[in-house]
Design goal:
Shape: globular
Number of strands: 13
Order of helices and strands: HHHEHEHEEEHEHEHEHHEHEHHHEHHEEH
Largest sheet: 8 strands, mixed
Strand content: 5-15%
Number of helices: 17
Length: 491
């Protein structure tokens, strides 16, 4: 293999930029895929975000059905090892229990991704079943933050966030059940959109409210890449239980013009949780910057029952993950989770949720409804809610209190730890709202800090439009133009 361009040129191209070169026949999909392979070989040993690369589709990008006439024209793409299945490829879900699991069909979204012209060339790390905040079990793998490898990438789209931030690949798949796209995007300096409920299908699975809490999406380095991904991969499969949003104009067109003057509510004091003083100061700077763009900015806390929201989300996770684990065990003929194959907190979640009565689910759904209605009313008066992506600094590797290898004996206390740091993202999953993390800020230790924007359900285009306006105002220099310590430009 040889380089098709130098690493500085590579680092300055997004997925759409690469696809334009492919269309102009300056480079080929095979050459682009080979460059990703070379970047992976050079950097992945330091960050451990990519589990496997599929050499057969590097050598032949059309082998699995990639549509080279799609918008991305054969640009390489990595799939998180959780969620949509890829026919014939391993999907092990970050779990020793699932080692060797090889799906026999492509999910609906996988087919959409291929039709968009993305060449799926490998898979990225995730914590076990996507439950916790970091892909960090030494028995499986430990994924490190390319800005400083002593720190976690957070999660659960851990490997994707690391690979995109390090410049290995410009765009990659993620899932978000409570912040799992936005949180790792925020702490790795990427753009991460969690779309509205009813944008990306998870067919053939999870056609109910609990399944729709988790959303599919991508992490990228430019707004136009994310907009093109949503435009080309969205849509419902036959038999969906809800309508799917169809915008009157493509997001790729919409982001070319600025939004009108927006009413932006800024907050960080959500129920019992607060951001640190430094994070609040970064939020203030971001809010002031938006004022300079002509938007009305005011410090307003949404009038919702935050405690009920966190309790409902906790119960949803416990019941949902318990059933996921039960289903996987049933496939393997197991009655209990094997302690040597499933991590301790996942076992505790299974134990707590496996016999939950229907009244608990009904209570959770009532809370979801009440809070969703309150949020809907709030967005009658406000266009955007602006928060930090996280409330506390990025944890160091080995901070087990947030991990499913934790020895915490209390499931509720373990979730409480998660809400203290990841205070602001799960509300979007509960209400089906879109949310985006934008790499606008910085922690005291120099690691990136994402700023989150939320808006009303189905208004994903407004978030991308605002993101594009900010991107233009920054001359494309997210993260103040800084790059991670582990980056392709240093190869």
């Amino acid at each position: 293999m040889k380089l098709v361009m130098n690493w500085e040129e590579w680092a300055n191209l997004d997925a759409i930029g690469l696809s334009e070169l492919i269309r102009q026949k300056q480079i080929t999909p095979q050459e682009v895929a080979q460059q990703v392979r070379l970047a992976t070989d050079a950097l992945n040993p330091k960050i451990n975000g990519i589990i496997e690369v599929f050499d057969d589709v590097i050598n032949d990008p059309t082998k699995d059905g990639t549509n080279l006439d799609g918008i991305f024209a054969g640009v390489p793409f990595l799939m998180k090892d959780l969620g949509p299945t890829v026919k014939g490829r391993l999907q092990e879900m970050g779990s020793l229990l699932m080692c060797g699991n090889r799906p026999t069909t492509d999910s609906f979204l996988t087919k959409q991704i291929r039709q968009a012209g993305l060449n799926i060339i490998g898979r990225t790390t995730t914590p076990e079943f996507g439950l916790c905040s970091s892909a960090e079990n030494p028995a499986v793998y430990v994924t490190r933050n390319p800005w400083n490898v002593d720190y976690t990438t957070c999660g659960s789209s851990a490997g994707t966030a690391a690979a995109v931030a390090a410049g290995i690949i410009p765009i990659s798949h993620g899932t978000d059940g409570g912040g799992s796209i936005r949180i790792p995007a925020g702490v790795n300096g990427n753009i991460g959109l969690k779309p509205s409920r009813g944008v990306f299908s998870v067919a053939p699975y999870s056609s109910d409210l609990m399944g729709a809490v988790s959303a599919q999406g991508c992490l990228s380095r430019t707004i136009r890449d994310t907009a093109a991904f949503v435009d080309s991969c969205r849509g419902g499969a036959p038999g969906e239980f809800m309508p799917y949003w169809l915008p009157s104009q493509s997001y790729s067109e919409l982001i070319r013009r600025d939004p009108g003057r927006l009413r932006i509510a800024v907050s960080h004091e959500w129920g019992d949780y607060r951001a640190t003083p430094h994070i609040v100061s970064e939020l203030k700077q971001a809010a002031s910057f938006l004022e300079t763009l002509g938007h009305h900015v005011e410090w307003i806390i949404p009038d919702i029952d935050f405690r009920a929201a966190y309790d409902a989300q906790t119960n949803c996770y416990i019941m949902n993950f318990s059933q996921v684990i039960s289903g996987l065990m049933e496939q393997k003929g197991l009655e209990r989770p094997p302690a040597d194959l499933i991590e301790p907190m996942c076992i505790q979640v299974w134990e707590e949720g496996r016999d939950a009565p229907y009244r608990e689910r009904a209570k959770m759904q009532t809370a979801f409804n009440d809070i969703s209605r309150s949020l809907g009313s709030f967005f009658e008066d406000w266009d955007i809610i602006l928060t930090p992506t996280i409330a506390l600094p990025t944890p160091k590797i080995g901070t087990t209190e947030y991990l499913t290898i934790s020895d915490n004996s209390s499931v509720s206390d373990w979730f409480e730890n998660l809400w203290r740091i990841f205070s602001y993202t799960s509300i979007a999953n509960l209400g089906g709202l879109p949310g985006i993390s934008l790499p606008m800020a910085e922690l005291e230790n120099g690691l990136p800090l994402g700023i989150q924007a939320l808006t009303r359900q189905g208004n994903d285009g407004l978030l991308l439009q605002l993101g594009a306006q900010i991107e233009r105002a920054l001359n494309g220099k997210w993260n103040s133009g800084r790059r991670p310590a582990v980056h392709v430009s240093s190869i």
